[in-house]
Amino acid sequence: MKIVSRNEELLRDALSCIPQPSSRTSLASCSRLIRFEDISAAAFKIQCGVQKTPCMYSRLSKQYGMDIYLKKEFLQYTGSVKERGVLYLLMSLPQEQQRKGVIVASDSNFSMAVAHHASELRVPVFVILCTSTAPARVRMCREYGAMVISYGATAKDSQLHARRLAQENGYLYLEEEDSAVYLSGLGTVGLEMYEQVPKLDAVIFPAGGHCGLLAGSAAALKHLNPHISVIGVESESFPVLQQSLKAGHPNDDQACNNHHFYGDVSGVCFGSNSLQLTGKLVDKVVAVREEDILISMLRLLEYERATVDAEGAIGLAALVAGKLPELKGKRVAVVICSGNLELHLLQQCIARALTLDNRVCRFSLVISDCPGDMSKLLELLAREEARVLDIKQERTFVTSELFTVEVMCTVETRDKMHTAQLRNALLERYPTAAWTER
């Protein structure tokens, strides 16, 4: 069930008069997809319900040769920028529908935002989750105030059940889509960034399938200053947006990964309205590797004390990967839009990122099984200022000469240069030392 409002009628009328992608249109005609007045109205209406998050100068600026400002949307109550669109969506519902209630069927940031803000507005809210949903997500939705029901083995089962309950009980079934109301709420991010950082040259947003934040904010920024570059970033493994833009319509055939690490980054393109706005107003869409996203998460944790997920880190990943060399020396804002990463995944991501960043390495070597040889190895590591994280010895299955021991050691170093220095020192003393490639 879609929400019909005057904004959607304006959007539908505008879409009907858009020329073919091959033709050129002015910014004025493109902005009719969402009027700037719609975004301004959304900002006024939701100002008491969501945080006006800071957009702060980052210490990462010197490292990447530009003035970087981070818009910290992960500081919203539910840890996601989706709250902006959801709150405006719920506040725009007729009072009769607010009285009956709403229902959602996913464990996404969108559902958690609906659970929280519907409860705050005293709108009955039901969240249907499949039985395989992580317990932490179930608990969070309950704590936000939703009635949570576990049903079905797959997401499709829970969605069908939610639609059935909505039809039988008069609830409004909500799923993340690109109505003008929802996009206007998300577009308030662009409005705030323009106010918070003067003389912006470029703004970087997460893209992927759910490009509503990119599309809505682009509408606001391009209205205020057409010279600001608006850039979207998506995963190299799931170039959903790039493929959809190339095809001229939402691409539902793109294979997506259901792993929770990716979140909305790998989702299917959910609407033609966002796609039209993106195609007309966004200057560039780039793709980054998973390795770049992990290192970006590590940089944000170390330099900003920000614990974010893949969707939150992917914008900075474009700078980490050197995908935007034209921004050197410019003033750039990056939206850090989400911080909902499960704890066990966070541990895995940081461990893997340290390895990719050449700060955790592993080697093996064979030494004589005599008193003092192990202490000589440890003395060498101490002299090179390498921190030993783990050390194992294998005597039984060593294939070299008798009375030797194979030592497998994991150490922490400062950076790539320090790792190379340690490797040279080890090879000089133990020529047969073997390094485990990352």
UniProtKB/TrEMBL annotation:
Gene Ontology biological-process annotations: isoleucine biosynthetic process; L-serine catabolic process; L-threonine catabolic process
Q: Mind telling me which Gene3D superfamilies this protein's record contains? A: 3.40.50.1100
Q: Which PROSITE patterns match?
A: ACT (PS51671)
Q: Which UniProt keywords apply?
A: Lyase, Pyridoxal phosphate
Q: Which InterPro entries match?
A: ACT_dom, ACT_ThrD-II-like, Ser/Thr_Dehydratase, TrpB-like_PALP, TrpB-like_PALP_sf
Instruction: Give the required cofactors.
Output: pyridoxal 5'-phosphate
User: Out of the domains of life, which is the source?
Assistant: Eukaryota
Q: What Pfam families does the annotation carry?
A: PALP (PF00291)
Q: Name one GO molecular function term.
A: threonine deaminase activity
User: Which segments constitute the ACT domain?
Assistant: 362-438
In Swiss-Prot or TrEMBL terms, this protein is called L-serine deaminase
Q: Which organism is it from?
A: Agelaius phoeniceus
Q: What is the lineage of its organism?
A: Eukaryota, Metazoa, Chordata, Craniata, Vertebrata
